[in-house]
Write a structure and sequence with these properties.
Length: about 325
């Protein structure tokens, strides 16, 4: 069975996510900002683009299980596509490091979840060892099939925008998506400026999806920086929170905290300069807000009588 036929059988309809003009944020940043809302992929994150290819090829190679280390989104995606393919998913996460909704997604799809007393890097090391066993295939972003699939967002951006943006911004956690986006634009013969936002305190950042102390693709990202293709911006949790809140309150785009890192990096990069200065930028927002609702502040909701007067009084 060929790769294309396997991919078709495993697909959940990933991709074709909207590109949203962020008018209010554009005015703040001094340019034209578009948001590529990857949270509308089947499992709620950009991971699905690469996972469909990785799982398809694992099945084609005769795998009986896929395995991954995860802070959440990879787990949910691997579990869903493994279920679709009829094979097992084994997910290893650091103790207490995964948002509840992401764990629920993986469990609902039948994944075998294991927690390791250690960091994400410990989890990935163990998954590498497990993948050396017969029948297991690693589907973290160090699997080149993942990065190949994630490049598909580049073609969509070019088609939806009708041209090449001046700037593309996105989060920097493990670095796989940064490398995929850079490779995708290079393949398309385009070279926008890439600005990536990482957590200043990687090991314990509030934005759990990028809570990765040692990025698996750090060397490749460093090479892109040295080549002048990528700018890395380190962000405080306060900066991440501010743009996470502004994305939803100004534009209605509800994303998980880490997904706002691209917008926050654009804002920080423009400080003291001219911002976007009339440029066209695309911020890739990588995961849906329902992935991590624990950080949403919930003020007390008043209970009122069932009357219009009571509503008007409460609103006053």
């Amino acid at each position: 069975m060929g790769v294309s036929s396997v991919s078709s059988a495993v697909s959940l309809g990933e991709g074709s996510t909207p590109l949203v003009l962020a008018s209010r944020l554009s005015a703040e940043l001094g340019g034209e900002l578009h948001v590529k809302y990857e949270g509308l992929n089947p499992t709620g994150s950009f991971k699905d683009r690469g996972m469909v290819v990785a799982v398809s090829r694992a099945v084609d190679a005769g795998a009986r299980a896929v395995v991954c280390a995860s802070t959440g989104n990879t787990a949910a995606s691997a579990a869903a596509y493994a279920a679709r393919a009829g094979i097992q998913a084994v997910v290893v996460t650091p103790v207490g490091a995964t948002a509840g909704p992401k764990r629920a997604q993986a469990r609902a799809a039948g994944a075998r979840l294991l927690e390791v007393r250690g960091s994400f890097d410990d989890a990935l090391r163990l998954c590498r060892l497990l993948a050396e066993q017969d029948g297991y295939v690693l589907v973290n972003s160090i699997n080149p099939d993942r990065l190949e699939g994630q490049q598909s967002v580049v073609g969509e951006i070019l088609d939806q925008l009708g041209g090449v943006p001046d700037v593309v911004a996105l989060p920097y956690g493990g670095g796989g998506n940064v490398c995929a986006i850079a490779a995708g634009f290079a393949r398309a013969g385009a070279s926008p400026r890439l600005i990536v936002g990482e957590a200043l305190r990687r090991a314990d950042t509030w934005a759990s999806a990028i809570r990765i102390a040692e990025p698996a693709h750090a060397d490749e990202v460093a090479e892109l920086v040295a080549a002048g293709r990528v700018e890395v911006v380190s962000l405080s949790d306060e900066e991440l929170r501010a743009d996470w809140e502004r994305l939803v309150t100004l534009e209605g785009v509800f994303c998980e905290p880490a997904s706002a890192a691209g917008v926050a990096a654009l804002r920080r990069s423009g400080r003291g300069h001219t911002g976007l200065a009339g440029k066209v930028a695309v911020a890739i927002v990588t995961g849906h807000g329902l992935k991590d609702t624990a950080n949403v502040t919930e003020p007390e909701v008043p209970a009122i009588e069932a009357s219009l007067e009571a509503i008007l009084e409460a609103l006053a």
